[in-house]
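Recap from last week: sequence in, structure out.
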Amino acid sequence: MKGNTFQELREREQYLRREIIVDATEMLFSHKAFHQINMKDIADEANVSVASIYRYFESQDDLLLAVLLKH
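Predicted structure tokens:
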């Protein structure tokens, strides 16, 4: 039986969490200016902790870059 290894599943989960954060950030940026949004706002929108965001992005600037690179 061929299936995903645990490593592949872990990597997929990390990718999906990162995408959830990017999508939430994009949605917030579509309604508010960059300087009006903080990491707590993004965490609330993505339904994750602020610490989780920092696992994937060093700063809010990095998040903005990820949103811009998505398009």
